[in-house]
Amino acid sequence: xxxxxxxxxxxxxxxxxxxxxxxxxxxxxxxxxxxxxxxxxxxxxxxxxxxxxxxxxxxxxxxxxxxxxxxxxxxxxxxxxxxxxxxxxxxxxxxxxxxxxxxxxxxxxxxxxxxxxxxxxxxxxxxxxxxxxxxxxxxxxxxxxxxxxxxxxxxxxxxxxxxxxxxxxxxxxxxxxxxxxxxxxxxxxxxxxxxxxxxxxxxxxxxxxxxxxxxxxxxxxxxxxxxxxxxxxxxxxxxxxxxxxxxxxxxxxxxxxxxxxxxxxxxxx
Length: 269
Description:
Layout: H1 4-14, H2 17-47, H3 52-75, H4 83-105, H5 114-137, H6 146-171, H7 180-208, H8 224-237, H9 241-255
């Protein structure tokens, strides 16, 4: 309906200011953390002085950058109808950061509860990463193509199974159902499906995006005020822009008088 450049700009304008602010903050945190980690590494290599405190600072910056990246993945759908999953993912990333920082700094004695902190870190990290993957994939949910929805469903189910199968050994201290070999063999099969789906679903969505089911496509230059109304309707209904535009067009045509009710005026003399 409009050019990709215009579409990107208009999508940015309809993103809530709070979401844009969170995205900028997450990007700044990731960049600053990576720069700080790089500077610390360079200083340590050149000076030869790399003590315990420097190591903890380096690990802290890397951990913050890692969870900042997952937060960016969660924010990818913060303006979509699945935004709740994104917010849950942000909460999971923040929750996973807490045991990571505790284990890195450990200002107090963790001798009796270290395993609990590691267990919490493992469970929450798996949750945060799985939700980050899901949130990136859910951007394809607005596609009208059945093949995309089938692939998305299979991939999300596989990702959930992978997360559960990773949680079980952590929470049960290695006590998994069945034989160890069969368990991890099945895990490998599901993980392969998960990886293939994660790569294939967005690509399929891009390939079939410009191929309508009925073999026809209408390109229009939409005025800015009308496009803003379409975006508002899309946000209110949870649909993407094109589906909202088609729905509005269909409603408008349904409201028009039929051929039997009115005739098209002929040319005037």
